[in-house]
Design brief:
120 residues, three-stranded antiparallel β-sheet, 2 helices
Length: 120
């Protein structure tokens, strides 16, 4: 089983191809993804991996069809409230946290400041 926690799909294609899921292939009709990362361009819904049976040949079957386009996708920024502290200033490993946030598409347009003579 993949370490990934979800599968990205195209809702309209899923509705049109319900009887052909056994012929679907990873990278074409679906893609794996980890929880919490952005949904790849062209995909508009997510199915939890525990709701999918993955065949040895790569085809899939779903325990239940999703009800809506956009299912299991949260709006960008919905995990935090405006003005909420992301991490405190001078926290150790700040660079690693920033790299992690930027790798997920966050941190666009932010600025970092260094205080003169500050060694914290």
């Amino acid at each position: 089983m993949s370490k990934n926690k979800r599968m990205m799909l195209r809702y309209d294609q899923l509705m049109d191809d319900q009887d052909k899921l056994a012929d679907w292939r990873c990278g074409a009709e679906y893609r794996y993804s980890n929880t919490g990362v952005a949904v790849a361009e062209g995909y508009d819904m997510v199915v939890l991996i525990e709701d999918v049976e993955i065949r040895e040949d790569g085809g899939i079957s779903l325990q239940a069809l999703p009800k809506n386009k956009g299912e299991n996708i949260r709006p960008v920024g919905s995990s935090m409230a405006k003005g909420e502290l992301l991490f405190p200033a001078y926290r150790q490993n700040h660079g690693n946290q920033r790299a992690g946030i930027e790798s997920q598409g966050g941190g666009v347009g932010w600025q970092s400041y260094a205080l003169s003579g500050d060694t914290r």
